[in-house]
Design goal:
four-stranded antiparallel beta sheet, mainly beta, 88 residues, 2 helices, two-stranded antiparallel sheet
């Protein structure tokens, strides 16, 4: 995947606003491991050169396990998140 396609998630209203490429979650098993609760704890933005990511964490998981998932339009609509300025 090219850096251009990773960074093409620019908001229409302000070219300086970008959604994160990935969201970070901590996952806790419940109900004897049959189900799990996903808690959002951070986000990751792709570097312009496509060679890495900047990860910003709001919390750290107790077990040390972080799950990163790519953001799609459906996730953005359901999360109700406010777009933030992309890291420089």
């Amino acid at each position: 995947m090219s850096a251009d396609s990773r960074n093409s998630n620019t908001a229409d209203k302000d070219p300086g606003l970008k959604r994160p490429f990935m969201l970070a979650y901590t996952v806790k098993p419940i109900d004897d491991g049959k189900n799990s609760v996903w808690s959002k704890i951070g986000a990751a933005w792709a570097h312009k050169d496509g060679e890495g990511y900047e990860v910003r964490m709001d919390a750290l998981p107790v077990d040390g396990r972080v799950v990163l998932r790519t953001v799609n339009d459906r996730d953005a609509e359901q999360s109700g998140e406010v777009l933030d300025r992309s890291p420089q």
